[in-house]
Amino acid sequence: MAKKVGALTGGGDCPGLNSVIRAVVRYALKEGYEVVGIKNGWKGLIECATMGLNLESVSGILPKGGTILGTSRTNPYKKEGDVEKVKKNFKKLGLDALIVIGGEDTLGVASKLYKEGLNVVGAPKTIDNDLSCTDVTFGFDTAINIATEAIDRLHTTAESHHRIMVVEVMGRHAGWIAIESGIAGGADIILIPEIPIDINEVCELLKKRHSRGKSFSIIVVAEGAKFKEGDLVKQEEKLDAFGHIRLGGIGHALGDIIEKKTGFETRVTVLGYLQRGGTPTAFDRVLGTRFGIKAMELVLKKDYGKMAALQGNEVKAVPLEDAVKELKTVDMELYNIAKIFFG
Ligand code: F6P
Fold first, then answer.
1. Disulfide engineering: 259 pairs with which of 18, 148, 183, 266, CB 3.0-4.6 Å?
2. 209-257: pLDDT as tens digits
3. Same domain for 198 and 111?
4. Residue 334 domain flag
5. Is the CB of 172 inside a 6 Å radius of any atom of ligand 1?
6. Which residue is closest in CA terms to ligand 1's atom 10?
7. Rounded to 10 degrees, what is the CA torsion of 246, 8, 113, 224?
8. What are the strands of the beta sheet with 189-191, ordered from one edge?
9. Which tens digit of pLDDT belongs to each residue from 273-301?
10. 73 three-state secondary structure
11. How many domains are contained in the chain?
């Protein structure tokens, strides 16, 4: 009987997910495996919702954003009995192994399940780029390119109308998208979750810049950035299954204060899900493909409990447990480079 490998995608969707799925399927079929797609992340394994994955189903998906498997933020450790359902369905489906494609939450579940005896391996996904043990996650490159293009486009209106433009980008705990798109887009101030916002300092920088003749400024702010005195700005209080609040709104809060304190006309743009949608860059397609092949290679070697990771230019296997232990926040060396261009 053919060996069986399952694949699921969990958490926020991300450009490049389909390249991982395609790589897993193509390699697995070559090795004589049958591939079972688990629909909608961990939810699909709780409910035993699956789809067959074959050459036909992965044909033409490489340039497509999102995930053909669907996704969810379901956490089987949240509701009593769900972990047992996951284990039961893993067995029922006759899976020899499961490839889990996700970020810290989804892979955190994978790591726990591995410790409880399931044969799982992981591939690191997130536009936020905040997973440890890997230099970069797929999806990040696409997100920073979208954000950079947006900053470039906002420059023209900022300059023509002599305005301050605040651009809110994603980045819950880490400001990677803000810092890299901000540097690439020539932002005048970049605000990230790692460094609390000193609003007086921000206004002083803007005034100084304008006093040397500049009539516009661009500020990039990560959604998870917060004021020195204050809390996260959120859209609602409700927590998701992993205990996260829905962020969003710091851009508008910041814009209001800046306009009041400096008198400069200020506008706010929230990029939101545009950063996660649509076609992945060539870099993300290649990285996703490499991660998918590595994950399947780990399955073939029965090297479970590991995650594919990019270190330098090499794709390596790292323990899932290490990858989810703590988040990778913005490198202060990079932040200090960005700071030279503030104001
Ligand atoms: O983790 C990726 C991410 O896009 C974060 O940057 C953001 O905070 C979150 O997902 C938004 O999640 P949701 O899709 O549940 O609104």
1. 266
2. 999 999 999 999 999 999 998 878 888 778 899 999 888 899 999 999 9
3. no
4. no
5. yes
6. 12
7. -20
8. 189-191, 217-222, 164-169, 266-270
9. 999 999 999 999 999 999 999 999 999 99
10. coil
11. 2
